[in-house]
Every structure is written in structure tokens, then in C-alpha cells.
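Archive transcription. Copying these from loose printouts into the bound notebook so they stop getting lost. Printout 1 of 2:
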Amino acid sequence: MHVHVQAAEGEAKFWLEPEIELATNYHFSRKQLKELELLIEIHYDELVNSWKRHFGC
């Protein structure tokens, strides 16, 4: 499972399992990546549940 983040500043992909981990980053700063990771942690259950619903897992 993974999540893509797109914004005017850049684009990134984070793995959700087995743990939250940055997969790719295009132009986000380290500070922005930390903020994104925190948001993913806060919304982790929602993201995983949405992934499972979307992909029928």
C-alpha cells in the first residue's frame, strides 16, 4: 500500500506498509516531507481503509 502526494511544490510517494516510508520525492524539502509524513501518520487508518475499499482488499 502506498499514497501519492502532489502539490505545486513537488510530488512524493510514501509506502504505508510495512511501515510509513518515503519511496520517491521530487522537489519537496526535508521540512515538507516531515510535515507530509506526520499527516500520513495522523490519517493512517483512513488511508489504509480507503485503499482497501478502492482495491477490494
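Printout 2 of 2:
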Amino acid sequence: MTEAEFVRRFGGIYEHSAWVAEAAAAEAAAAGDLDEIATLLAECVDNAATDRQLALIRAHPDLAGKAQIAGELTADSTAEQASAGLDQCTAEEYDRFQALNTRYKDKFGFPFVMAVRGSSRAEILAAFAARLENDATTEFETALAEIHKIARLRLQAMDAHE
């Protein structure tokens, strides 16, 4: 596939960050399988400047946040949050998510990111609370690791639909 075809196909794997696919396109367009593509995309993120990595983290929506309620999430984010039941929060759970989202962003300067597919609301809330105890460096690295998990899950979903 050409580099342009690669970017068209994989530009949405990293949330609102087509630059990842653009940076990997030359090498990844000739990749043999999705696992190799996932590795090349992740390496582009890991080798990017810190400000670019921060922009990638900030491109992610809050979990059970206002964008979800307003229907403003990407199709992938909508499906991922729904798979964890985040579209079915009770009023109490929704309020808890909003409070944690605010505390987290106030502390770290970016949204809480977690690969939620297959997790329950209770598990996500517990992870949220636990990760609020992290220092900024640990949480930055954790957010990037979770983003890589999300990307791999998105690639696997693409593969399953082909």
C-alpha cells in the first residue's frame, strides 16, 4: 500500500493524531501484519518529542464525560466507552466520574486515559482513584502505555472486520 493509503487507513488509530500514521507511513506501509504496524506506530509515539506526546494524551476524551453525553466522541471512543458500560452510568457514577476527571486533570494537566474495553465501571473507577496517587512522570508514562493498548485494540478490531 502507498504511504497515502496507509495514512487513510490507519490515521485514526491514535485519537485525533494522524501524525502518528504519517510519521510511520514510509516504514509501516510495507509491514507484513498488524502486530508489526502496531509496533511501528508505538515507536513513533515513544520517539516523539514530549510536547507531541502530551498533545496525544490531551486528544483523548474524558471517560463518561460531557463529550460522551453530547455525542461528540469519535466512533472508536464511543464503542470503547459503551463496551465498558460508561454510557449506562447511574447519576451517582456519573458524578463520581466528573469529580475524578476534574481532580485528575487538575493534578496532571491531561485527561485520564485507560483502555477500558473489557473493564467494568467499578474497575475503571478503582483504577482512576489508584492512579491519582501516582507522580506526574509515572502517570505520563502510564497514559502513553494505555494509549498503545487502545491502538492495538483498534487495530485488532480493524483486522476482525476485514
